[in-house]
Predict the 3D structure of the following.
Amino acid sequence: MAHIDYYFTTISPWTYLAGLRLEDIAAKHGATITYKPVDLPKVFSQTGGLPLAERPVARRNYRMQELRRGGAKTGLPLTLQPAHFPTNPAPSCYAIIAAQAANEKGAGGDLAGLVHGYLRACWAEEKNIAEDDVIRAGLSAAGFDPALADSGLLMGAETFARNTEEAVQAGVFGSPFYVVDGSECFWGQDRLEDLDLFLAGKL
């Protein structure tokens, strides 16, 4: 059985545009997933990436075209310039980490729904996913105890830092990023078809 380490940040539009396709692909092939939210600016700083504001105008302009086309292709509602972007992704990342731990203890909910819910809140619902009430509402909507927003804070912070270190060691340099069985890497939601083919033994 294949295992996928899924590295991402909750304010990435490209991660939002992946929708739930990763989960569908994993289910199709009987693969497991570990969700690993990361501090993307720290990943960038160690792998040669540039924050959006520091990229050349041509690249920023192209990004906007690609986002518009990506929204049209996926059918997902997308606000190209959301009111609360950029914002601090850490609180939502901590909540996801705490929720994953709750699932491992048999007291959780829909983890994939939680992740996509925070992404949707940022990119389609004009919500600030750094705010406590948004974090709690997301947990509750996905079937988790909203108190995880507080009780999982320390563990979330420690795991978030560890995920970031592991990401760099694994060769991750963007979001979303998928690593199969610790070695085969796929960057971007537009490589999910390749991930599917790889798990099928066709690549």
